[in-house]
Automatic annotation (TrEMBL):
Accepts electrons from ETF and reduces ubiquinone. It comes from the Eukaryota. Its EC number is 1.5.5.1. It catalyses: a ubiquinone + reduced [electron-transfer flavoprotein] = a ubiquinol + oxidized [electron-transfer flavoprotein] + H(+). One of its GO terms (molecular function) is 4 iron, 4 sulfur cluster binding. Its cofactor is FAD; [4Fe-4S] cluster. One of its GO terms (cellular component) is mitochondrial inner membrane. The chain crosses the membrane at residues 69-88. Gene3D superfamilies: 3.30.70.20, 3.30.9.90, FAD/NAD(P)-binding domain. Residues 840-941 form the ETF-QO/FixX C-terminal domain. Residues 281-312, 598-694 form the ETF-QO/FixC ubiquinone-binding domain. This is electron-transferring-flavoprotein dehydrogenase.
Length: 943
């Protein structure tokens, strides 16, 4: 398997895969675990549910997925449990089936189900292997890099007494003779076989436990059912109970491994052991050691028998458990694959597709593409039904920058309200990042005001707000000097009482609180489309289709996304969300506000010398390296992370800059060379890098927040306090207000009509009556003050006035043009020369991008789409000298020479870190950022 998602999925993925029909039981009284009989065993296989009073009102309907093969060849479902080294046979069967299908020009679907978190997670073996079967299966395994790296060189066998070792010759022809075999870590071999299987078109479903064999009426095997989830320790159904899924097939191959629990049932049902002796077993225990090189002999095998047992032996060799990163096809695993039933259709050749920069279906609709004409585009729709007729709620969350926090805050607040009013509601969060916090990036210095309201005992619960601010410093920089500016209490930049944090860790902690409150969380699930009712109200969202080739054609593994329907959808996408953009346009939400203006924030985390570290110190700067007409500045936060002295340093460049030669990433690197700054990082180690756009429009740019069927929270509308450089507290508060509004609305609603969404229209008024509005109004003129002819000095002058008027001045300044319209033509601007990186304090772009851990499937349509492929070479390059190759902080856009010697745009979508800068700053608004497959993008760790 390829990777973007570094995530070990636990067994609750079964719940995420299966529709939760069984959860529709909200009127039933929850059984108290205290009333349950005290048993050692509470499993339903011992105590059937049909005789348990606690289960009598639980809907036990189970969703069944029927696999249908249109070419009438056959349908194959491969059930694989990786136990001991028996993952290998399952993968071998899958690969061989695909080979046979290819040889005979038959298109078949092969899928592997595995209860371990990853392919190889349950793999354990000695392992010394013969390559005989591998030679037959994959004759060129050496060329393909199979990890059989240690051929056997020596064979030794000893009979042990307590104090001696009697050598026994290992003669050719004896079973223990191993020359020609290989010593391996079988987990790595399993992983490699998994890669070969995936390359052959096998579908793999890890973290999916099959618990029951299903039978036809004639007694033949029909398939398997996955585990039910949400069952308490005492055997009673929890609120989160969800029935497993049925998987039906014509033929099921069981490769469970030694003493498989399903194989045991098959032995009994079909009397498979009637003509053989009882099986006998051994227990194998294994350790791996790092040893002194002087004691190591590569390829040596030692077997022993005798002491401390009699007639037993042990094996010294190598193996491993596999650390495997799952990729974004998890979205496919979550959604039923109705669209894959097209086996008679001819596969479109990617070589026949027109050579386009953009191949995404949002630009080239599939209904006009011949390659898609025979593809079944039916999409499975999951209807959330709440039996108490209270309401159905679906919370759509995208974790971007620090704006995962509002989504989690809304979810927690909803569960709190439900508990307070004794109402049982279902709250779920959908997140395109691989894990909760994987796309979270912020400074971050946060006010705890909203957190105090949401979780008053956050300190006792271990919230990772460990570094209170101790010192505030502000400097105006020239090229060689740093002019101190006093930070006086009452100014927005005053930070005493705030906390320096790694916001990704705060997000993860909030995720734990949300899960403890009963919130369902769905990571690695990308919502790509808004769904509407016939009356135009929001119906919900659809997840991404998967299995689409880079040229836009359907692959054999194509699967349609899933529809998620709800009465009310809360959008917490973060800055410049791709779905929020659509909502702004459809409902004209920005008709009464100024255009949003943005900045690009770049950040690094450094390990620094303790002698240079002051825990709780904040340093902000303005001035150099920006010119006087470009808004920008830096932050430097000294934090302690589990006792480790770290410095979080970043630079923000306003995206209304004029000079197309300006490069935000290079400005950040140049900033670190300032004499006041550089010394902090010398002899240090950079451990993280990332970037993200942020809203800077403030009060003037806040749109209408509610619409039929949903509302916007956090940085989707834009609640960042610009002079404070803080938005976490306001984003959290907006989400809490939204949760309270939606809860009250749906509690009062008697309309049970599922054909329209409800509008939380009172949300706008509640925001205007909250401290968010008062706070943003008081600083409304700070950012636009920099638009005057005085530039940065105008902003500094206004800062002094703000101390006097405290935001009560009788005027409101405007921002002016949208950011993309501010860019001047290259002929009117001077190119900027940037110093080369020294690889000590400053670094090249690609080495920085590698620290983001970003990844995307190389064979999918680029999610950076162009509305017109010709604009880059007709406009951007000749008029603006290709600004996209400079404003992107990840090296996504590059002008390269084609065969005719002309320069053309190349989009390196794999580098994208989801900052959205290109969508904002492109001068002709030709770039449209859309979501890639779920789980892709950066994998930040505590940014």
């Amino acid at each position: 398997m390829s990777s973007t998602l570094r995530l070990c999925l636990h067994s609750s993925i079964v719940k995420r895969i299966t529709p939760s029909f069984a959860s529709s039981r909200w009127n039933s009284t929850k059984a108290s675990s205290e009333d349950a009989p005290k048993k050692i065993t509470t499993h339903y296989t011992i105590y059937p549910r049909d005789k348990d009073e606690r289960w009598k009102d639980v809907n036990m309907e189970r969703y069944a997925e029927e696999y249908d093969v249109a070419i009438r060849f056959f349908l194959f479902y491969l059930n694989l449990y990786i136990l001991l080294n028996y993952s290998v046979p399952g993968l071998s069967a899958a690969i061989r089936l695909r080979q046979l299908a290819k040889e005979q020009n038959k298109e078949i679907r092969v899928c592997l189900v595995e209860k371990g978190s990853t392919i190889g997670a349950h793999t354990l073996s000695g392992a010394c292997i013969e390559s005989r079967a591998l030679d037959e299966l994959i004759p060129d395994w050496k060329e393909k890099g199979a990890p059989l790296d240690t051929p056997v060189t020596k064979d030794r066998f000893y009979y042990l007494t307590k104090t001696s070792a009697i050598p026994i010759p290992v003669i050719k022809g004896l079973p223990m003779y191993n020359h020609g075999n290989y010593l391996v870590r079988l987990g790595k071999v399993t992983a490699w076989l998994g890669e070969q299987a995936e390359a052959a078109g096998v579908e793999m479903y890890p973290a999916t436990a099959a618990s029951e064999i299903l039978y036809h009426e004639d007694g033949s095997v029909k398939g398997v059912a996955t585990n039910d989830v949400g069952i308490a320790k005492d055997g009673s159904p929890k609120d989160s109970f969800a029935r497993g899924m049925e998987l039906h097939a014509k033929c099921t191959i069981f490769a469970e491994g030694c003493h498989g629990h399903l194989a045991k049932q098959l032995f009994k049902k079909f009397d498979l052991r009637k003509n053989c002796a009882p099986q006998t077993y051994g227990i194998g225990l294994k350790e791996i050691w790092e040893v002194d090189k002087s004691k190591h002999e590569p390829g040596l095998i030692i077997h022993t028998a005798g002491w401390p047992m009699v007639n037993k032996f042990c094996l010294l060799s190598m193996s491993s458990t596999l650390r495997l990163c799952l990729h974004s096809s998890i979205v496919k695993r979550i959604t039923p694959s109705f669209a894959s039933s097209r086996w008679n259709s001819t596969k479109a050749s990617s070589e026949d597709a027109p050579k386009k920069i953009t191949t995404h279906y949002t630009i080239y609709p599939r209904d006009k593409d011949e390659r898609w004409k025979d593809v079944n585009m039916e999409r499975y729709a999951e209807e959330y039904d709440v039996a108490i007729r209270f309401f159905l709620f679906y919370l759509n969350l995208y974790i971007l920058l620090n704006y995962s926090v509002p989504g989690l805050s809304a979810a927690i607040r909803l569960r709190q309200l439900a508990k307070e009013q004794n109402k049982e509601i279902r709250v779920c969060l959908v997140e395109k990042g691989s894990t909760i916090g994987a796309h979270t990036l912020s400074g971050a210095c946060i006010e705890s005001r909203a957190l105090d309201e949401l979780i008053p005992d956050w300190k006792e619960k271990g919230a990772p707000l460990d570094t209170p601010v101790t010192k505030d410093r502000f400097y105006y920089l020239t090229k060689t000097s740093a002019i101190p500016i006093p930070v006086i209490k009452g100014l927005p930049m005053y930070n005493h009482g705030n906390y320096l944090v790694r916001l990704g860790k705060v997000t993860a902690w909030l995720g734990e609180q949300a899960e403890a409150a009963g919130v369902e969380m769905y990571p690695a699930t990308a919502a790509s489309e808004i769904l509407y009712h016939e009356d135009g109200s929001v119906k919900g969202v659809a997840t991404n289709d998967v299995g689409i080739a880079k040229d836009g054609s359907p692959k054999d593994s194509f699967a349609r996304g899933m529809e998620l329907h709800a009465k009310c959808t809360i959008f917490a996408e973060g800055c410049h969300g791709h779905l929020a953009k659509q909502l702004f346009k459809k409902f004209d939400l920005r008709k009464n506000c100024a255009p949003q203006t943005y900045g690009i924030g770049l950040k690094e985390i450094w390990e620094v010398d303790k002698s240079k570290h002051e825990p709780g110190l904040i340093i902000h700067t303005a001035g150099w390296p920006m010119d006087t007409h470009t808004y920008g500045g830096s932050f430097m936060y000294h934090i302690l992370d589990n006792g480790q002295p770290l410095v979080q340093v970043g630079y923000v460049v306003a995206l209304d800059y004029e000079n197309p030669y300006l490069n935000p990433y290079q400005e950040f690197q140049r900033f670190k060379n300032h004499p006041k700054i550089r010394s902090v990082f010398e002899n240090g180690k950079r451990i993280a890098y990332g970037a993200r756009a942020l809203n800077e429009g403030g009060y003037q740019a806040i749109p209408q927040l509610s619409f039929p069927g949903g509302c916007l929270v956090g940085c989707s509308p834009g609640f960042l306090n610009v002079p404070k450089i803080k938005g976490t507290h306001t984003a959290m508060k907006s989400a809490m207000i939204a949760a309270e509004t939606v809860f009250d609305l749906l509690k009062k609603s008697t309309d049970d009509n599922k054909s329209k969404g409800l509008e939380p229209s009172d949300y706008d008024n509640r925001i205007k009556n909250s401290w968010i509005w008062k706070e943003l109004y008081s600083v409304r003129n700070f950012r636009p003050a920099f638009h005057t002819s005085l530039g940065v000095f105008g902003g500094i002058i206004y800062s002094a006035l703000h101390f006097v008027f405290r935001g009560k001045e009788p005027f409101t300044l405007s921002h002016g043009k949208p950011d993309h319209a501010c860019l001047k033509e290259a002929k009117d601007c001077k190119p900027i020369e940037y110093p080369k990186p020294d690889n000590v304090v400053t670094f090249d772009l690609l080495s920085s991008v590698s620290l983001t851990n970003t990844n995307h499937d190389s064979d999918e349509p680029p999610h950076l789409t162009l509305k017109d492929d010709s604009i880059p070479t007709k406009v951007n390059l000749p008029v603006y000298d290709g600004p996209e190759q400079r404003y992107c902080p990840a090296g996504v856009y590059e002008y390269v020479e084609n065969d005719s010697g002309d320069r053309q745009l190349q989009i390196n979508a794999q580098n994208c870190i989801h900052c959205k800068t290109c969508d904002i700053k492109d001068p002709k608004q030709n770039i449209n950022w859309v979501t890639p497959q779920g789980g892709e993008g950066p994998a930040y760790n505590g940014m």
